[in-house]
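ok here's Triosephosphate isomerase:
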Amino acid sequence: MTDAIRPLIAGNWKMNGLKSSFAEFEAMLAGAGDVAAKADLLVCPPATLVGAFADKARGSKVAVGAQDCHPKASGAHTGDLSAEMFKDLGAVAIIVGHSERRADHGETDALIRQKAEAVWRAGLTAIVCIGETREQRDAGKTLDVCGTQLKGSLPDGSTAANLVVAYEPVWAIGTGLTPTAKDVEEVHRFIRGQLTDRFKAEGNKIRILYGGSVKPSNAAELMAVANVNGALVGGASLKASDFLAIAAGC
Ligand SMILES: O=C[C@H](O)COP(=O)(O)O
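and the structure:
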């Protein structure tokens, strides 16, 4: 980690976890003290577990977040959940614009921007995800794609307190593949430039996470790349020992 920004290791449990997963989360809480000196820790379980996890984590070194929200605070939106509801449960952050939601639900940059604004309305931090597909990378469009997503998805008024950007190459998610450190450095440098162009000095303080097949074995190398201020971890965040080992690599 070359930057002065305190790293954030965020776990995205995606559509995984039942009440029986509680023990794994308790193991994370039990082991978090050792790594919390190095990094902030956040776990985003499925919506069904946010309340129970937040209750359990109160006063601990692990914060709890959610994985998506509706742009509105309340209303006739069957099956949807608002940022205010997650705040009520004790969440401090919400992931928006994950590529799985962009792909599975056709979410656009404009909608993701509205969701990020909804997260702010509730007083929480938005973790906005961007990243290119394999085809886009092979076509040399990675920076164009990320630039367009950043421009469209980030609301005006982004600060280090209300925004985290997560760069997740779609082809690296859940595949065991990762970009080279040089490729990660190039994209994170580009993102930093976009953030400072738009948000001036504040853009230098906003955390930029890398996500996509982060594991204990590659975390230290990835976290050492310039402008990588932590990780958004999927599969490896389901296991306390792996999640904490990744944080220890900061
Ligand atoms: O949100 C997390 C990412 O999609 C990364 O998932 P992964 O660590 O399982 O590749």
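+1. Residues 181-199 form the longest helix (19 residues).
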